[in-house]
Design goal:
377 residues, alpha/beta, Rossmann fold, 2 domains, eight-stranded mixed β-sheet, Short chain dehydrogenase, SDR_fam, NAD(P)-bd_dom_sf
Length: 377
């Protein structure tokens, strides 16, 4: 290879370069500008690494997008990874886990069923996790799962009658954290427990109605479904702030300081399957248009690996283990939340009261259905 290259350089006609030097300069400047913009759009990367051998980590949304990158990172770091999936693993999930085990040389990667859109499924998983003696080890919970429906699609509800985006982005994760609280509090004082949760910039647009959390009694915003997502993200960030404050005030039996650290991560706009579905309007023609504009998306947006860097930073950086304050991370940098309501205890109390009431109503309805089926038998 070097010999043909040297021969080409020797035989190259430099007169053409001299005569058309302006064109060459324009080309090089354009190429440098595109490369510089792409380097900027990829965002910052973390340099932290961490040995996690033996640590137990629960991950939601770990089979695609950013969550998949997070699972791969955790497996390579040696953690015991529990991937929560919506239903019993299909062949795709089995093959994915087996392949990940082989690539990471880590056999402690497996899945458990926990559909965040179903309060019953969340309770079943949490009950099984809690119902152990002694308390199961839990070092970290990484909440990457989320859902954003495309515009101009009718309102979708779960089998339990809850708006799908609200249930997946807030009610399910909140129920999971609420039920796992005894396990989190019960970890030994020397063991650091991190809660890492995903958010997005739509939380800034959140406008929560405590009397109608999921907009059941209001027209569904078909043209702007991100309003529902914004409400859900704002609600979950507020509840996580309250969760961290209560953990700080919790008096441990061993009198040791708080060992719980809550970090919320905003990865920015990333080329995930969810983004592809949203930007294509969930239509075939939209997908074709998305593929046609692929160079534009590639240039402007981060891929999943770069989008996961802030999650890697929240997982590995020791600075988050040195403080028990609620933290928001963007581009591997700690920033203050844009909404003051997140730190308002009265706002959080109203929200938690309304969310608990909504969950109780869902579970009562399910119990009634179960009782009616039993009576029919």
């Amino acid at each position: 290879m070097p010999i043909p290259f040297v021969a080409h350089v020797v035989q190259f006609n430099y007169d053409h370069v001299i005569l058309h030097w302006k064109s060459y300069v324009k080309f090089l400047v354009t190429l440098a500008a595109i490369g510089g913009f792409k380097f900027w759009s990829m965002g910052r990367s973390t340099t932290w690494e961490r040995k996690m051998n033996g640590m137990v980590v629960i991950v939601t949304g770990g089979t695609s997008g950013i969550g998949k990158r997070v699972v791969e990172k955790l497996a390579l770091l040696g953690a015991h990874v529990v991937i929560l999936v919506r239903s019993e693993p299909d062949q795709f999930t089995v093959d994915y886990i087996m392949d990940l085990r082989n690539r990471s040389n880590n056999q402690f990667v497996y899945s458990e069923v926990c559909d965040l859109s179903s309060m019953l499924s969340v309770r079943k998983f949490a009950t099984q996790w809690i119902d152990c003696s002694p308390i199961r080890r839990l070092d970290m919970i990484v909440l990457c799962g989320g859902l954003s429906l495309p515009p101009y699609i009718d309102r979708q509800v779960t089998t339990e009658g809850v708006e799908l985006q609200w249930a997946t982005n807030f009610l399910g994760p909140y129920q999971l954290m609420r039920l796992l609280r005894p396990v989190i509090y019960g970890q030994p004082g020397h063991r650091e427990v991190r809660i890492v949760a995903a958010t997005c910039s739509s939380y800034v647009l959140g406008d929560i109605n405590f009397d109608d959390l999921a907009l059941d009694n209001h027209p569904y915003p078909r043209s702007s479904p991100w309003k529902v997502v914004g409400n859900a993200k704002l609600a979950f960030m507020t509840c996580l702030y309250d969760f961290q404050k209560k953990a700080q005030n919790h008096e441990r039996p061993d009198k040791m300081p708080c060992n719980i650290h809550t970090v919320v991560v905003n990865p920015g706009i990333v080329r995930t399957p969810g983004f592809r579905r949203f930007i294509s309007f969930g239509r075939i023609w939209g997908l074709f248009l998305y593929l046609l504009l692929w160079p534009f998306w590639w240039l402007l947006l981060k891929g999943t690996l770069k989008g996961a860097q802030s999650f890697f930073h929240a997982i590995c950086s020791p600075e988050f283990g040195a403080t028990t304050e609620y933290l928001l991370v963007n581009e591997c940098t700690m920033i203050p939340p844009s909404r003051k309501e997140i730190a308002d205890p009265e706002y959080a109390e109203k929200l938690i009261k309304a969310a608990d009431a909504q969950i109780d109503l869902v579970e009562k309805q399910y119990k009634k259905k179960g009782a009616s089926k039993t009576n029919k038998k």
